[in-house]
Design brief:
This protein has about 400 residues and is α/β, with parallel strands linked by helices. It has helices spanning about 5-10, 35-45, 65-75, 85-95, 115-120, 165-175, 190, 225-240, 245-255, 260-275, 295-300, 320-330, 375-394; strands at about 80-85, 105-110, 130-135, 150-155, 180-185, 200-205, 220-225, 280-285, 310-315, 345-350, 365-370. Helices cover about 40% and strands about 15% of the residues. The strands form 2 sheets. The chain has a 7-stranded mixed β-sheet with strand order 1-7-6-5-4-2-3, sandwiched between helices. A 4-stranded antiparallel β-sheet has the order 8-9-11-10, with helices on one face.
Length: about 400
């Protein structure tokens, strides 16, 4: 089946669905067993890693959890998935599952800020060292591997600056060096990039963003191949990491409209970009679907679509006062973190880098194109640029 059809049909055969189009929401902690033999058999199956069978306790998932996770696994082409409290927790668990004291990991300089902070500030407390690398490094990354390098983290496109990585090449190098590869695949979603098909071991999503789609839940997921699932599963269970069945139910609902929403998000983004590039204050747009973008060739080779989040770099002569005036007066663009919901968002960005230089010296803002009419959004931007120009003349 085509992806749009799979989004509609996956996860609908959960136990107890009783023919409803939407599987019912199942909450619960205690699971009753019929007898001692049932207690022992369920415990045995859990210890053996039979995740999709009957559970012994709610922390291991209700039918609602499994309906969503099974649907995501099928979309990703993985072995198993699990839902976690946030995208950040999914990133950190995906790292912690494969490292121990004395290990070394590689992380792109363009990684999501909180992931970067975790690697920089938290991992050293447990004797784990991080080397940040240029996201566009390609084959020379092999020189950064050490005998104790256990994990290669990827994020493509990168946060805020949208660099596209050569994921198949990097994943192959990691595998040859006996290191696990993990990717934050939130921007592309499982519809437009399937990392496990390109050799990656673990795919992470902030479901909070496009999969949820309505700015009303916090959720992350990990999906892995069979070889890596055991370590992930044990780490998740050891740390007691689970999430609300209510959020899994909302995420499963979000999957149903994902393709329709992403089509609109991208179309609006492309319209906004065309308008922005015509403004003299705009130096460039960071969006890999554009032939002028340095990541265009890799995006065209590996991805089958794009979403609606992009960066806008202003000319170096634009002053901070005008930049803030542009943003502060927005009526339709919300000033809020996150992205992927129905409302358009616009924030100033200040990427933290230690290795790779920023694409430009100009001020940077990130836009998440929502589901409003593109012409109304352009009117809002027009007013914003008028405020910027007025501030420049003060």
């Amino acid at each position: 089946m085509k992806p749009s059809t799979r989004l509609i049909t996956l996860g609908r055969d959960a136990p107890g669905s009783a023919g409803f189009v939407n599987p019912p929401l199942v909450r619960g902690s205690t699971v009753l067993h019929t007898d001692v033999a049932d207690l022992r058999e369920r415990a045995r199956r859990g210890a053996a890693g039979e995740d999709s069978g009957p559970v012994t306790y709610g922390i291991n998932g209700t039918p609602t959890h499994h309906a969503f996770c099974d649907a995501l696994t099928a979309l990703e082409g993985g072995h198993r998935s699990w839902a976690l409290p946030s995208g950040l927790s999914a990133c950190t668990i995906a790292i912690l599952a494969f490292v121990r004291q004395g290990d070394h990991i590689l992380v792109p300089d363009s990684a999501y800020g909180p992931t970067r902070k975790f690697c920089r500030d938290t991992l050293p407390r447990y004797g784990i060292e991080t080397t940040f690398y240029d996201p566009r490094i390609g084959a020379p990354i092999e020189e950064l591997f050490r005998p104790n390098t256990r994990l290669l983290f990827l994020e493509s496109p990168g946060s805020l600056t949208f660099e596209v990585q050569d994921v198949p090449l990097l994943a192959q190098i990691a595998r040859c060096r006996d290191a696990v590869s993990v990717i934050d695949n939130t921007w592309a979603t499982p519809l437009y990039f399937r990392p496990l098909q390109h050799g990656v071991d673990v795919s992470v999503h902030a479901v909070t963003k496009y999969i949820g789609g309505h700015a009303d839940l916090l959720l992350g997921t990990v999906t892995s191949n069979e070889a890596c699932w055991g370590a992930l599963r044990e780490t998740i269970r050891s740390l007691g990491m689970t999430t609300s069945p209510d959020d899994c139910w909302l995420a499963l609902r979000g999957l149903r409209s994902l393709e329709a929403r992403l089509t609109r998000h991208r179309a609006t983004a492309e319209r906004l970009i065309d308008w922005l590039l015509a403004q003299p204050e705009v130096e460039r747009v960071l969006f890999p679907t554009r032939p002028q973008d340095p990541g265009y060739a890799l995006w065209k080779r590996d991805f089958c679509g794009a979403t609606g989040v992009f960066g806008v770099v202003l000319q170096p002569q634009v002053r901070v006062a005008g930049f803030h005036a542009l943003i502060d007066g927005m009526r339709l663009f919300g000033r809020g973190y996150s992205w992927g919901g129905f409302e358009s968002l616009l924030i100033p960005c200040h990427p933290d880098r230690s290795v790779a230089p920023l694409p430009t010296a100009g001020l940077l803002m990130r836009i998440s194109a929502g589901l409003e009419d593109a012409e109304d959004l352009i009117d809002d931007l027009q007013d914003g640029f008028s405020r910027l120009r007025a501030a420049k003349q003060d």
